[in-house]
Amino acid sequence: MCVWMDRVECLYLLYMRLIFNYLLIWSLIGLSVPDAARSSMVVFVHTARARLRLTLLSRVRNTLHFLLQFGVFQGYGSTTTGKLASHGFASMAAMSSFPPQRYHYFLVLDFEATCDKPQIHPQEIIEFPILKLNGRTMEIESTFHMYVQPVVHPQLTPFCTELTGIIQAMVDGQPSLQQVLERVDEWMAKEGLLDPSVKSIFVTCGDWDLKVMLPGQCQYLGLPVADYFKQWINLKKAYSFAMGSWPKNGLLDMNKGLNLQHIGRPHSGIDDCKNIANIMKTLAHRGFIFKQTSKPF
Asked: 267 catalytic, yes or no?
């Protein structure tokens, strides 16, 4: 195995074996493993398994792509195509690109909100972008993008404009959050995302957008939060599972770790969404399967 795997994966496997031996010895002598040690071991094992899986899938796909170039699969006919289609792939070429995901669509979201130093309260959403990402091709199929009129602090601070690039004229006269949420629901229906047979989930860079910002502002305004906003994938957690390191600087670290160019302006909601989508596509191409990270409300 070590002949075709690089040293990193070999070390991961050896260290995993040491971990399991450690657990076995402690259990045999009747001692309990300290909670802190058990927790760190579990995290390491999950990370090691994810990294190993990504390596294996990447090499399988590279091999498959190489064979496709030489027509190895020509003549397999409709049987092969049918089997691939049953797994969500339109062709052999699709199989060499992405593994099947658990969701039909990923809804990439990144709010921008009123802000200042020191922070103002309550914060209010001023940019509300969503990208509809096809779960099979990882391509953007549709975009929802609106600016929102803040009510409590209607005048944007210089700090906020410098950070987000949003000027006062971009929010003046725009719909309220309640009106924007109604339009989100209309867009979701138009895109077929409210169909019970269609599996979709929101994706954010962190938990702040859907765990703190939206429910907090809705509570302040006395607005209900739609059920589809109550489950999501935190891209930072997904990235850490796939790459084995936590992106302290968010999108900047993830782009750097994947050798990707940053798209657009940092802290522009719509540009941040494009970066999230690009990172997801890259991780999916390496074999990563995205899973819900939020806990049920």
From this structure: yes
